[in-house]
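Input record (Table S2, row 415):
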Amino acid sequence: MAILDLNQAMNNNNTTAPPCHAHAAPASDQRLRQAEWKAGDDADNPNPRHQADAEEEEEEEELLLKGVRHLCERGGITRLPARYVLPPSDRPAPPDHHQRTSGLTIPVIDLARLRSPGAGRAAALVELDAACRDYGFFQVVGHGVGVGGGAMLDVARRFFELPFGERARHMSPDIRAPVRYGTSFNQLNDGVLCWRDFLKLVCDDLDGVVPSWPDAPADLREVVSAYARSCRRLFRELMEAALEAIGIGGPGAGEVLAGCDAGSQMLMVNCFPACPEPDLTLGMPPHSDYGFLTVLLQDQVNGLEVRHADSWVLVDPIPGSLVVNVGDHFEMYSNGRYKSVLHRVRVNSARSRISVASLHSLPPARVIGPAPELVDDDKNPRRYMDTDLATFLDYLSSAEGKHKSFLQTRRLLTS
Ligand SMILES: O=C(O)CCC(=O)C(=O)O
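Output record (2-oxoglutaric acid complex):
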């Protein structure tokens, strides 16, 4: 088996990467592209592969699993390697076409109104309820996480600019690892790779886990843990409002909110480098989020698209805002009233994009199912079976996980 020299790769990568498209195509670029995706490729070519070709492919696969930034840093990629090329039916439509056809935007919720007493809060609760039902997504302004958000994006950018060897210390193919630097969406199952690198940080028992987080950049632990705490507070506040909006009070709400306080939290710090052929691939494929709510911080480079009314709606970042979406657990808990919708990330050829998703749920051991208050045999029969974290992780590492919709596997009713 051909093994790439990691030290050599590290030495090649001590500088900040130029945009991927800024260099002439090196030989490796041509090779990476040669096996371009074609329907029925294997059937059309029955000749057995030469041993040398197989070794070369293995070497290339190892290179690609080191991530997109590493690939770009090695000397420039002018065309998209075959492993990232989506079948035509899964490619994003060109952005101008997309902009013309959709023209939609996701709702904006002003948290200052939600915090105001009386009629202001009541009106904001109605808007929140409608946003969770109709879109499953909204942008939050007036949230008070602004300063932490700027510092978070800044340290994330500096982390991805570290030499590859520094980032590689946190690489693991194990999807259960609490600290993990990786690439694509689900490395184990992705037939086509995504144009994305990420740092995953599990934040349950924050004080206990922070010492295992990357120690470079030097301020990462401090900035990210402060940001994680802000997100947890925001999650708690939004859950309290959403439970009120959906009509759950008393012990039911108390139990869920206690679960939120002690609940699970995971940060996904994403980097989507500039891509030489962005219309052929995605930064993240259509997927829904595990958990109750996700709080997403994005820089000013757009890319997030949300599925709504059979089209993809681009979420134009409002400066200082956060995007919040309903996750699979909230759809199940609300017995289908709130929607966990598919979203995806497109990439562009000019600018790298950073985003930070904070995924929140109840404690990992908790079984999630529809709230009894929202189920009745006549009008609202139970729509989902109960689930837990172990079932989700099994799903992720199974062949079923290719379909990127855990929620579908939990449905009892289809309408
Ligand atoms: O980058 C984005 O806008 C979305 C990220 C996302 O969907 C995720 O991390 O699950």
